[in-house]
TrEMBL record, chains A, B, C, D:
Residues 111-176 form the Cupin type-2 domain. CDD domains: cupin_GDO-like_C (cd06992), cupin_GDO-like_N (cd02216). This is Cupin domain-containing protein. It comes from the Bacteria. It comes from Flexivirga aerilata. Keywords: Dioxygenase, Oxidoreductase. The keyword Cell inner membrane does not apply.
Amino acid sequence: MTDTIGGVRIEMTDAPDQPAPSEQLLALYRGFEQELLVPLWAEIGELMPAAPVSRALPHRWTWSALYALARQAGDLVPVGRGGERRAIALANPGLGGRPFATPTLWAAIQYLGAGEEAPEHRHTQNAFRFVVEGEGVWTVVGDDPVAMRRGDFLPQAGWNFHAHFNPGDAPMAWIDGLDIPYAHYAETTFFDFGRDRIEDRSAPETSKSERLWAHPGLAPVAAADASVGTTPLLAYRWEHTDAALTAQLELEAQGETHTIEPGHAAVRFLHPQTGGDVLPTIRAEMHRVRRGAQTAPRRETGSSVWQVFDGSGRVRVGDEEWSVSRGDLFVVPSWQPLSVVSEASTDDSDSGALDLFRFSDAPIHLAMHQFRSETEDDR
Amino acid sequence: MTDTIGGVRIEMTDAPDQPAPSEQLLALYRGFEQELLVPLWAEIGELMPAAPVSRALPHRWTWSALYALARQAGDLVPVGRGGERRAIALANPGLGGRPFATPTLWAAIQYLGAGEEAPEHRHTQNAFRFVVEGEGVWTVVGDDPVAMRRGDFLPQAGWNFHAHFNPGDAPMAWIDGLDIPYAHYAETTFFDFGRDRIEDRSAPETSKSERLWAHPGLAPVAAADASVGTTPLLAYRWEHTDAALTAQLELEAQGETHTIEPGHAAVRFLHPQTGGDVLPTIRAEMHRVRRGAQTAPRRETGSSVWQVFDGSGRVRVGDEEWSVSRGDLFVVPSWQPLSVVSEASTDDSDSGALDLFRFSDAPIHLAMHQFRSETEDDR
Amino acid sequence: MTDTIGGVRIEMTDAPDQPAPSEQLLALYRGFEQELLVPLWAEIGELMPAAPVSRALPHRWTWSALYALARQAGDLVPVGRGGERRAIALANPGLGGRPFATPTLWAAIQYLGAGEEAPEHRHTQNAFRFVVEGEGVWTVVGDDPVAMRRGDFLPQAGWNFHAHFNPGDAPMAWIDGLDIPYAHYAETTFFDFGRDRIEDRSAPETSKSERLWAHPGLAPVAAADASVGTTPLLAYRWEHTDAALTAQLELEAQGETHTIEPGHAAVRFLHPQTGGDVLPTIRAEMHRVRRGAQTAPRRETGSSVWQVFDGSGRVRVGDEEWSVSRGDLFVVPSWQPLSVVSEASTDDSDSGALDLFRFSDAPIHLAMHQFRSETEDDR
Amino acid sequence: MTDTIGGVRIEMTDAPDQPAPSEQLLALYRGFEQELLVPLWAEIGELMPAAPVSRALPHRWTWSALYALARQAGDLVPVGRGGERRAIALANPGLGGRPFATPTLWAAIQYLGAGEEAPEHRHTQNAFRFVVEGEGVWTVVGDDPVAMRRGDFLPQAGWNFHAHFNPGDAPMAWIDGLDIPYAHYAETTFFDFGRDRIEDRSAPETSKSERLWAHPGLAPVAAADASVGTTPLLAYRWEHTDAALTAQLELEAQGETHTIEPGHAAVRFLHPQTGGDVLPTIRAEMHRVRRGAQTAPRRETGSSVWQVFDGSGRVRVGDEEWSVSRGDLFVVPSWQPLSVVSEASTDDSDSGALDLFRFSDAPIHLAMHQFRSETEDDR
């Protein structure tokens, strides 16, 4: 129960030792207001809850709606210097209309029409792209054009110049993930414009980055001791991710236990020079849930955004439950339990698994010694 | 220039490639709204500025005003379970009336009357106390009562039970610093009640923690390999801090250069098991500026709170400038340059230096590879 | 110049302050001897030279001689419990007949005939296998049989059970590298016998380890946070190593500089959970020197063993120079400069590059802050 | 049982699969010898024992004998450039007459007469001094003269220039500890001469190093982020060490358990910028065993050297047992159990505790993942 005295909100609780409203208290609270002060005892319930309470809400966005709007934007909104990117961001319904999927994470669909180019810039925000469908766009990082194709994960550590161009005759859309809300909160953001146009339009199948770094367990000696601030591997291709998930489930079928739980395989994207998370602020993973399997409810501190890469199923986050299929995105707020069922949708003859791409802010909470996770069994 | 179409704020800029307002665009923006989406191009200026722009404002609170209100609260507001602490927090004028000194940091005056006790609890937030005047309160951490006296810095890493009691016959006030705003933002907060009353009222001069750990460069072998999540040293006494600052200025007078700049000595409080910052989220330092000296304007990513411990002078933060003396607090928002002049106030016959306690959120930004600092010379 | 008084070797130098031989000095030295003492001034020249002086000598072993003796041992020496392995080790001519390739490193040819098995054991020594020719043997690590084929690098971190079996009808030989001399020196060695015979003779093309870990930049989530003491990736296949070296030289031909020096590509084998060296004590690399190219003389603290994997050339180590071709091994002692020329041997119609496998003790010296390296340009 | 064929030592065991001596085997072994090869099966028993077997032997040196010889050396052996130091090293009886206390560690008594100076030099070996009695010598590190007094521990990280001078009118002796045997083994040693004579003879009570760093938990901000290769704190004074040990035993008497075991307190010397061991290769500790107490037998991988600082008692290492009193040194080889009894010697009216200084090579084995320790209870 809350009351207001002198414009100041006061928690009126049954707990002992709370001040009784009085004229003197009113005068005191006016003094607080005047001197830009707020008493802890009026705020402690919200600031120091027994367990994390997220302002973000569980929510699902369907790919069909998202894509339709992105295509319309492709017709109406030019892409170029100033607006920089034709990106349309998820705005969590709990976060006041800001383009924040969660308090820390940005997730947007970006759309680039045939022949278009998004101009070069760099920013301290960490970013990645993930491709749920289509191909034909190259992201140019420095002087390295990196092809984008279905299933690929393309990290982009902060403060590297990058542009995107679409040399083909079909549009392409993909997902951008960034730590924009976190960086905005942390007030550590720097931004620079780069070249307005990349002259070199070479569009190789394989980037220089991959030619140097996409060999399992191998580093170029000339770069092995370099600063590890920036991920040198710019593309994690679907063929590798798929093979890794397939192997985990095959091994499980042979009695080995390298999955998270029965029927639930997952891989994490690594920074090859540290063996840790691919970006300082963002953890990224691909999960595969065998058709018919169900994951145990699990919660953790910090938030994540998920996108269905393939298959269909039902997802439960806290008290919400949705059916999901390819391209759909959903958000898991801090400390909300998540469970997933892999099952055919009514109009789905696919017999395969449910593949889910996921990214989270776990590296932040791990570094601050604030990461906790639990399943129901842990409690 | 900003305009609003269909309830959505749109940045209208002179930059190329911005969409021209039209019926179709209006329909598109309505679609965005309906689907909980926000276009990047309408927000990029605020989200991705060329350099950090803080919502927080530079501000100073005078100790006299703060202490007077705290004393009144001592008369009117009981301390006990529920409200937990008689703490009154700085509310930065740029942060919407929340009890946040900066976007990440909490700073409050806490007041405990003669014979009073603040009940035991624990929380994942990291905390410390700093004593600008007075003595007579013991902070009990687990079963270790730690005396609090002028000049002492007392860290309190997250998730340790602690209470405060005042066995004497005079009230005492001090400063609490925590990462409450950060933890609130990060949504990683856990909280537990402890004992309502600490039966053991022993009040030793020296805590067990100091007897074990306050020996320069020495660790108990039985604890040396223990987990380093929690600082084992619970009090950094003024006599040591003062001696360290004195030595830096004496060595400078002998021609050695161990100060930050001429006339400006500073020490950082260390976690003795890592050699790094005393708390995962908070850096704490004591600075001494020789009477007559002036510090070069310096700015860094992230925010800090400063308190004058002794002496007087003028402080400039961004476009603001204040006179300050003992106990006054001020806030330096992210990327705002700070400079300090140590000089006698008009009513001050003290010939000594200006001593400033400071805490900041630097460890967060260092861990996320987002820390930058510069003086004018660096530019 | 050295003299001996009373059985104690004395350095007689022209330096000032050396003691003049006398009866009293003789008595003093006898006292030292009796009390098990040695004066520094008699030893400092050898113990504290201006730069590292290795007891090891540069030396080359030819593969033809080594293989011929291993094949004879295959006829004469059974393999089994007690002797454990039919391994024949390089004995550096400077190291007193001990089976030590360098003061820290062991290198041996191991030979396993058709149908033979080397029994399971484990030891704290870190090990690897490298295959210069042939195939057909499986190394079983725990319950994971790992195929061995030409060009493969197979690390084996300490204290894991392992056996080898040859299920085919042809013998196979390969190189074992270990830190046996280091561990012998450090006196930290533990050893356990395992099963006398591995019942499960499954011999898959791909090990479980690779199915889980040999995907570039990917880790199984279920294992990602596991202890990093042991490398989880048990085979680094030649196809990947070859592709990585090829890419570096192709990029060089396009004007990129990711090689160590012109015509000299190299990759390092990484521990996928740390991004660092593959074993705590051993660094392993594959180098490729383009036909016609020559590497600049380079020296470093610590020693290494090299094996020619393909091609031919000339190698200069300190004052020694040899022609080398496939399978030949040579040793580079601490601080001895090495340079390599890639050129056709007289009886060699091969037009390809010189491929060199290398392992060294660099991780030890890096961890102790004792690693230095330089080329002539650095001096 | 060992036999020799063709000059090669062969282990003759009852284990299966050992080769039967024959003419062909003899020829094979001659081939090995000729090609500088050694078979594993002839050496495995010594190279790969079930648990560490040290070449070093437990041994005790008495301070009286050591000091008497040092004093004689003071009369007979000048100190100066060339010999560099009047240091007399412990030569472990198991290590072939070399001046090695253990395979990794050097321990020597150094003696400097009134007015003498040991000339400046630097070396990559890590060093320290420990003072069991006397005072009056200053170690000059760079331009910082550091006084040496009973009970002080003075670390000296590699590659810093240092000299010693005795400005007083009495001689002084102390213990030098270094990693000379390790560095000699590792072949990573560099050495430079410095100034022949330090002109500045200032001899302050407190070094600059201590004035900057000997404040518990405090670092100069101007140096806090500096490279951590070199310990910045050059003296750990006895008053602090004594106070820390006293506190542990007092707390134990109050029912707290911060000692290693009942009656056995210990502190470790820390590198203040890392919180870890004071030197990259050397761990240093001071132990105090209450009169009447006895330590449980404990063994660890790696070796250590101990010196009695005060009190008396009996020491058991492996099968050896000695009475010890002030200044006596003894060596504990790898994996040999050590236990200590604190008791009055027959001619000792002292009722105090047994204080023991100790240094070991543990940091090396920890970094290489080869450190193990156990008490009898662990087995």
